[in-house]
Amino acid sequence: MDFALRWNDGHFGPRKFWVNCLPRLKFWNPAVPMIVNRSAKQDGPATMSIYFRQPTATAEENNSSSSSTATSSSGTTATPKKTILTGLSTLPLAQQPRSSVTGEFPAPAPSEGEHVVTIDMKNVHSDRILEEFLAKTGARLVRPTADEEVEMRQVQERVERGNADRIIVKAFEDEKRKKQAMLEKIKKEADAIKASNQ
User: Coiled coil where (predicted)?
Assistant: First the structure.
């Protein structure tokens, strides 16, 4: 991903995609390098470059016994295709490009056997970026299982109960502080009366 540091001038959609979707992409595709290159150029482009490499005949023969599925989306899995990792992911970790806030690692040119799919993200909503990503990569959304849906409902119920409990505790604490302030005021008035009588 290449986009500006600040969200204005059409970079809000890419920023939101980066915050909301990219972590899920990385969760489902831990072996796929994902580089975020941000720069100070607000008028610059906002693009996402997705690199694909078709397997060679030798790699295809070696993998013929086990079909591989390429995963590549926010909670998404690509349709079953024989795909291998790109050249970047085969480099040692120290030599791989990394994310940058100074525009240090712009999208590299595709290596031999690779092709790049580019998505123009400038002035585009994050949901629309995700839709285009799904369409261009052939990835599919991973839906939660029945157990996961039950767990999510339980978490939501706990959050709602926690919010209600916080309101009750805040009201109790406010009342306690109010009484404490009133007692301190009465004590000060009593001390002032004692001092004036002496």
Answer: 169-196
Residue 146 token pair: 């029945």
DSSP code at position 73: B
Residue 24 and residue 17 in contact, taking contact as beta carbons nearer than 8 Å: no
d(CA 14, CA 129) in angstroms, rounded, equals 8
CA distance 23 to 21: 6
Q: Are 136 and 50 in contact (CB under 8 A)?
A: yes
Q: For the chain, list the strands marked E by DSSP.
A: 2-4, 37-39, 47-53, 76-78, 114-120, 139-141
Amino acid symbol at 193: I
Whole-number Å distance between alpha carbons of 98 and 118: 19
Model pTM above 0.85: no
- Please write the tens of the pLDDT for every residue from 64-89: 333 333 333 334 444 434 344 445 55
Contact between 14 and 121 (Cβ < 8 Å): yes
Q: What does the block give as tokens for 88?
A: 């970047």
